[in-house]
Amino acid sequence: MRGSPLLRALIAFAFIALAGVPLWKLTTVDGAVAAPAQAEAGAVPIGLRLTFSVAPESFAISHLGKVVWADQSHESHKTDESHDLALPFPEEGVDLVVKVAWPRDAEGALRLRLTDPNGNEHDKTVWGRGEMEEVIAFP
Amino acid sequence: MKTVFVHLAALLFIPALNAADRIRVSSFSTILTEVAQQVGGDRVDVTGHVKPGLDPHEFEPKPADLKIVGDSQLVLLSAKHMEGYVGKLREATGGTGNFLEVGAGFASLKIADDHGHAHPGHTHSEEDPHWWHSVGNVQKATKIVRDALKKISPADTVTFSANADQYLAQLDALQKWTKAKLAELPRNKRKLVTSHDAFQYFAKENGFTVYAIEGVSSSDQPSSKRVADLIREVREQGVKAVFSESIENPKVLKEITRETGAVIGGELYADGLGEGKAATFEGMYKHNVSTIVDALK
């Protein structure tokens, strides 16, 4: 192969960089969404669907002090989001701490629909303005 | 010069006049003493007959207490059979006293088990009289006291309403703090093993099950069967900690911890306000919640 070694090095670097983009896309989940790092002991699948009356700037759902689902991207969001969680769900139920930031101090409502391990859906709604933090008990 | 003397005399006279004008309130609950002081502000003169740290189940009014009650415009009682001496108080006022049984209208909760023996110190009842362990009940009590003070002094309606609103907002914030703190504790770990059965209202409001060693009064003594049953329950439920009380002898609790491996999680204020940080309702309630959550999680 002919040509300057510097030129060849630059071509090789460009090739690696171009190949890296699709690889990065394939191996990365949506950067804004934080998934739970590790399932807790006794965790079972729980479905959670959030419906916002006003698209939030950010939101976070925590269980026993750990964030289990968050979107902190501060970009324009959908008003309807669903996520599968893995949490312990004793018959006494669970408390989820919900933090939401609505833009420009807007008033908004959040409807949470939780599908428990038995397939039963539990429906709760909370209202807030600007930044809201509430503890929601299920069932 | 004469005008200056008149003004000075007026300034000296006004506080004395206000003190004489204050509504005289007698309280037989440390919680209601705080509520009356918060709502009444400088328009009330509250005598708390049951002092913080004292056992209200064992309290008996002395002649000095009866004299003050006889001169009071409002007498605040917890009710729910907490004040077994209420007859003496009524006698002290010649049957004309303005008695307000604050907790009488609150929905009653029964104690956990039939302990099978009488409860000295107050009329026997299976209901838990410790309604103040529900923040919601203290909010109701605040409104009841506010309305009673308004009736006595309609001219101070605006002051009493503003003071009550401020205190109610503090209680709202306390309730929110409590929910956030309790969210650290899994719901299936909310088992409260205490010396005497005083936390039914707390349990109902916050999703706990109570396993009490003694009955509703702090002077009750548990039977050996009761202790054996509790040891079995603590083992079966995997309870990590049990709680003593500020005015209790934790001897039986120590026996339970020896038999089960549970630890003593700390002291709770069951019968009213304490001292130091627990000298206010907010301080007492936060102490109890933090002690419970930190020991059981």
Average pLDDT over all residues of chain B: 88
Percent of residues in beta strands of chain B: 5-15%
H-E order of chain A: HEEEEEEEEE
What coarse outline of chain B follows from CA principal-axis ratios? globular
Number of helices of chain A: 1
Q: Which range does the strand content of chain A fall in?
A: over 45%
How many separate helices of chain B?
Answer: 10
Helix fraction bin of chain A = 10-25%
The largest beta-sheet of chain A arranges its strands as 1-4-3-6-9
Q: Which segments of chain A are poorly predicted (pLDDT under 50) over 5 or more consecutive residues?
A: 25-37
Rg on CA atoms of chain A, Å: 21 Å
SSE ordering of chain B: HEHEHEHEHHEHEHEHEH
Question: How many beta-strand segments of chain A?
Answer: 9
Gyration radius of chain B (Cα, Å) is 21 Å
Shape category of chain A:
elongated
Widest beta sheet: strand line-up of chain B: 2-1-3-4
Describe the largest sheet of chain B: 4 strands, parallel
Q: What average pLDDT do the residues of chain A reach?
A: 82
Structural class of chain B: alpha/beta
What report would you give on this structure?
The complex is a heterodimer of chains A (139) and B (297). Chain A is an alpha+beta fold and 139 residues long. Chain A is built from one helix and nine strands; from the N terminus they run αβββββββββ. Chain A has a five-stranded antiparallel sheet, with no helix packed on it. The longest helix of chain A is centred in the N-terminal third of the chain and has 23 residues, at 5-27. With 297 residues, chain B is of the alpha/beta class. Chain B has helices at 2-21, 30-40, 63-70, 86-92, 135-152, 157-182, 200-206, 224-237, 251-260, 281-296, and strands at residues 23-27, 44-48, 74-77, 99-101, 191-194, 209-212, 241-245, 263-268. Chain B has a four-stranded parallel sheet with strand order 2-1-3-4. In chain B, β3, α4 and β4 (99-101) form a beta-alpha-beta unit. At the A-B interface, β6 and β9 of A face α6 of B.
